[in-house]
């Protein structure tokens, strides 16, 4: 058992509220928990209040906190926390990742923005959809760097959890050096490639 599993959530200390996600509005909480765990350390988590991006973390669901999820950055890997990430460089994408199992399909699915109470979303398998997005962004001279932040774990129709993706535009991080921007880009790209390779086998059964 790793040290991380023994890590207590000490609420006597001021907590970074960006890392405490409320799951109150989610009906199928167990499914949502299994789903979000698929992205643990595969998508970086952004905190606006600290202007940090966490690349190495654990997701916890402490019973004493009620219906909440806590993102716990690995305290032994401080170099895995990226600093100076200004909020104006973080954008909503309107893209959502769904668990295929809910629609009786394998792996992960991608769709455009889901409207509550609207029709069931049209989906595409995650891998070809992501490849297309990356290609389109590249043609436009941009890089697709998806991340997630508090509020991105949602639910459609009280039965299907999904993650809305934000993206980081490193070109907007003008206070950072070229070296720092390149490092951030490579870190997120590395995570994205791992997610891409594993997307067809990720399931929250």
Approximate helicity band: 10-25%
Rg, rounded, reads 17 Å
Largest beta-sheet characterization = 9 strands, mixed
Shape: globular
Global structural class: alpha+beta
Assembly classification = single chain
Question: What is the total domain count?
Answer: 1
What is the β-strand count?
12
How much is the average pLDDT?
A: 88
DSSP helix count? Answer: 4
Q: Write the element-wise H/E pattern from the N-terminal end onward.
A: HEHEEEEEEEEHEEEH
Unreliable stretches = 1-7
Strand content: 25-35%
Distance between the termini: 24 Å
How would you describe this structure to a colleague?
- With 205 residues, the chain is an alpha+beta fold.
- The chain has one domain (3-201).
- The protein has helices at 3-6, 29-37, 126-139, 178-198; strands at residues 20-22, 45-47, 52-54, 57-60, 68-73, 81-82, 90-99, 108-112, 124-125, 146-149, 153-156, 160-168.
- The strands form 2 sheets. Strands 2, 3, 6, 7, 8, 9, 10, 11 and 12 form a 9-stranded mixed sheet that branches.
- The longest helix is centred in the C-terminal third of the chain and has 21 residues, at 178-198.
- The relative contact order is 0.20.
């Amino acid at each position: 058992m790793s040290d991380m599993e023994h890590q207590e959530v000490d609420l006597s200390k001021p907590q970074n509220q960006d890392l405490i996600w409320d799951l109150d509005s989610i009906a199928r909480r167990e499914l949502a928990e299994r789903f979000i765990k698929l992205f643990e350390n595969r998508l970086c988590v952004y905190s606006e209040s600290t202007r940090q991006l966490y690349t190495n973390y654990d997701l916890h669901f402490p019973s004493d906190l009620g219906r909440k999820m806590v993102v716990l950055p690995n305290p032994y890997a401080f170099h895995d926390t990226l600093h100076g990430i200004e909020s104006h460089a973080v954008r909503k994408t309107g893209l959502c990742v769904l668990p295929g199992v809910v629609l009786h399909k394998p792996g992960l699915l991608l769709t455009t923005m889901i409207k509550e109470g609207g029709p069931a979303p049209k989906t595409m398998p995650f891998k070809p959809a992501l490849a297309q997005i990356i290609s389109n962004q590249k043609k436009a001279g941009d890089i697709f760097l998806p991340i997630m932040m508090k509020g991105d774990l949602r639910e459609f129709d009280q039965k299907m959890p999904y993650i809305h993706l934000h993206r980081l535009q490193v070109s907007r991080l003008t206070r950072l050096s070229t070296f720092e921007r390149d490092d951030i880009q490579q870190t997120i790209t590395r995570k994205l490639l791992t997610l891409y390779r594993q997307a067809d086998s990720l399931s929250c059964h």
